[in-house]
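User: Here's a chain of 379 residues. Predict its fold as C-alpha cells.
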Amino acid sequence: MTFLDAVPGFTCGTHRVFVWDRGHNTMLGELTPLLAVRWNRIRDDISHAEIVVATHECCELLGDLETVFMEIEITRLDVPVWNGVITRLEYEYSDVRLFAEDILWVAKRRVLEVGYNNSWPNIQQVLDMMHILLAQQCYGAWGDLWNMLGNLHPIRNPAGFPEPRTTRVVNKFQVTIWEDFDKYAEDMGADYTVIGRDIFYWDNHLAWAVLPELDENHISQFPRIVEYGNSFATRAFVTNGRGWAGHAGNPDLTWADYGGGPVDFLITNAEEGEDANDPPTPEELESWQESAVHAIAASAPPPVSVVIPANTTLMPGAPWNVVDLIPGAWFPITVNRLCRTVSEWQRLNEVLVTESAPNGETVQFSAISAPKTRIDPVA
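Assistant: Prediction complete.
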C-alpha cells in the first residue's frame, strides 16, 4: 500500500518504530515497547517526531543509538508513514526519548555555497530552482550519501498552465539550502511537503492530491465562518522599493464599483532588480505585474472562508485515511448550520498523530482555504 491508496473510513491505528542507518539502507532493529509515538506532516516546513521507549526490553539497541548517523521509520498498521533523522536522545532511568526531524534536516544544516542571479534575462521557473537546490546543491553534491536523489519529486503543471517564475538573487554563504528552498514556498507561489523520505514540491494552485468531501460531523470541533475585510483589495503593486512597480487591478471589482476609492495591496521586495541605479527592464516589470495579478486574484469581494479550529481531531468513520493525509491536499467542505452557508475548497496544512497509553491514538489536523484559481492535473 502507498500513501496514495484510498482506504474508506478512518479508523484508529497502532504504531511500530524501526531504526535504520543513515541513507535508509540497513534496518538495525525495532524499538519496543513503545510508550508514546508522536509525529506530524506539515506543508512548507520540516516535520518532527518524538518516540518514548521503555528501557526494560531493548536496552542494548537503545544504548547503540546515535544522532545524525541513524534514521527512524514509523509505521502505522504496518504501513510506513514517517521517516527522519534522529536529532536528539534523552536517557532516563525508565525510558528513552528520541527526537527526529524529516529528511529536509540535511538541507537545513548545509550552507548554500554557490550564489546565483536570476534577474533578467536569467528568469527561472520556481520548481526548477527548488529541484536544483535539493538535487545539485544538497543531496547530490557529495555523491548522494543520504540516498535521496530518487526521492525528489517536482510535480509539474499540465501543458498550457504556466508555473511561477523567479528573479531571485542570492549570494553564496548567504543562507542555508533549506532557507532558500523554503523562500520559494513562502513568497513565490510554490508548496512542498515530505512524506516518508519523499519530498514533493509544486505550484500551489495545482490540485495534485484531492480528498473526499469532509462532513462537519466528522470533526471534533465545529468550524466557523469568517469574512476577511483586511484581505480585500482593488489594486496590487509589486515593487523593488526604488521607484518602480508592476501593478494589477482586480478583474472582479474595480475601485469605482467599490465606491470608497482604491484599496491597495503592496508587496515590496528589495532584492528585485540587479542595479539600484538602473530602471528595471520591461521583462522585469512584466514579471512583477504577473506577481501582482496573482496577489489580487482572490481579494475581491472580501474573502469568506470556513475556518476549522487548529488541531481538530478526525473522528472515526471520516472519509479519510491517514496514509492519504498529504499536506497541501485539496478537499471540499460545506457548513450549513450557521447563519451563513458556505462551501469552499480547503487544503490540509498539518497533520499531527499521537498514540500513547491509555488514550490510544488521536489524529489532529489544520487546514487553510485553497487558492481561488485551481489547476487540475492531466487524468
